[in-house]
Write a structure and sequence with these properties.
With 89 residues, the chain is of the alpha+beta class. Helix content is 33%, strand content 30%.
Length: 89
């Protein structure tokens, strides 16, 4: 288990409202969070295990900040995309 997950946005039966998921790139040792919603398809780096700085046992604050920033960027992208979609309607 590498800690990956998939969350789907609520949608009427038979429709796809999008999803958020994580994946692990074992070659680069990186965890990513991705989102697909309507016309938005982006991904953000959660954690880079190949980065020498993130290998430090004393660097949990750096990892926490990196994850928080990636999730904040994803939420901002979803919010902006949904607002633009609503404005066009």
């Amino acid at each position: 288990p590498n800690g990956t997950f998939v969350l789907k946005f609520p949608a009427p039966k038979g429709h796809d409202a999008g999803k958020i998921w994580t994946c692990y790139d074992s070659a680069r040792k990186q965890h990513w969070i991705s989102v697909f919603r309507h016309n938005l398809a982006v991904r953000f780096l959660l954690k880079d295990h190949g980065d020498s700085m993130s290998r430090s046992i004393h660097n949990s604050k750096h990892a926490e900040t990196q994850i928080s920033q990636a999730v904040d960027q994803m939420i901002s992208a979803i919010t902006q995309n949904d607002a633009a979609r609503t404005a066009r309607s």
